[in-house]
Write a structure and sequence with these properties.
The protein is of the alpha/beta class and 232 residues long. The chain folds into two domains: 14-146, Response regulator (Rossmann fold); 152-219, Winged helix-like DNA-binding domain superfamily/Winged helix DNA-binding domain (Arc Repressor Mutant, subunit A). The protein is 48% helix and 12% strand. The chain has ten helices and six strands, in the order E-H-E-H-E-H-E-H-E-H-E-H-H-H-H-H. Strands 2-1-3-4-5-6 form a six-stranded parallel sheet, with helices on both faces. Helix 3 (74-84) links the parallel strand 3 (62-65) and strand 4. The longest helix is centred in the last third of the chain and has 15 residues, at 190-204. It is globular, with a radius of gyration of 19 Å. The N and C termini lie far apart (45 Å). Mean pLDDT is 80; it is low at 152-157 and 222-232.
């Protein structure tokens, strides 16, 4: 025996579906992503109805979704896609920044929200983040979330279903920290935090971390003020 290890299998590219009612936008995104190693565009759709069918047929890793489209808009498409495929990962790419678009899209199941005036590098980065199951918000959208965080809570009691540690993890998820950062903050392993996050989403019947953040904002589960952290 030579003691050599077998070569690692090549990493599969991130498979992306582009949904936008403007052909020039779709083609521009496709041309951009065609130059990026590790990303493969597997299809296009020109409206939400087509998007629902294409996601079902192609099972992309990330769907880049416009919101304002004929036949079926992006928010309804997100609702239908996530209802059929709860693990679908959707990145909104739009010009709309109003609360009437941002929060309904996130509630529907979008994991990322990016604006069309973003730099190409921002889109590529967001696709990578969403493909890993991480939230990705444009800075101005993140500012809106922070604004909501500063509003008085409607209900300061934590849900009975969550343990004290899960409430603490939910609080940190809502501030935008990754599992690794939360683990460092709470002096525990990343695997433990991942387990806590999965339990939180399951107990609250939420699809992803962004929805967990919205739950935090709406229910006032906790205060963002520092408090003694429990061990474990």
């Amino acid at each position: 025996m030579t003691g050599q290890f077998p070569a690692a299998a090549p990493k599969r590219p991130i498979r992306v579906l582009i949904v936008d009612d403007q052909a020039i936008v779709r083609k521009g995104i496709c041309a951009l992503l065609a130059e990026v190693a590790g990303i493969e565009v597997v299809g296009e759709a020109s409206n939400g109805l087509e998007a629902v069918a294409r996601v079902q047929a192609l099972d992309p890793d990330v769907t880049v979704m416009d919101l304002a489209m004929q036949v079926m808009d992006g928010i309804e498409a997100i609702r239908q896609i996530t209802a059929r495929q709860p693990k679908a990962r959707i990145l909104v790419l739009t010009s709309f920044t109003g609360d009437d678009k941002v929060f309904p899209a996130i509630k529907a199941g979008a994991l990322g929200y990016l604006l069309k005036d973003s730099e190409p590098a921002d889109l590529i980065r967001a696709i990578g983040q969403v493909s890993r199951g991480d939230a990705s918000l444009h800075p101005s959208i993140a500012t809106q979330v922070l604004r909501e965080l500063r509003r008085p809570a409607h209900n300061t009691r934590p849900p009975d279903a969550l343990t004290p540690r899960e409430v603490e993890v939910l609080r940190l998820v809502a501030t935008g920290l990754s599992n690794r950062a939360i683990a460092a903050r709470l002096i525990t392993s990343e695997a433990t935090i991942k387990t806590h996050v999965s339990s939180i989403l399951s107990k609250l019947q939420l699809a992803n971390r962004v929805q967990a953040t919205l739950y935090f904002l709406q229910e006032g589960v906790d205060s963002l003020e520092d408090r003694p952290e429990t061990s474990g």
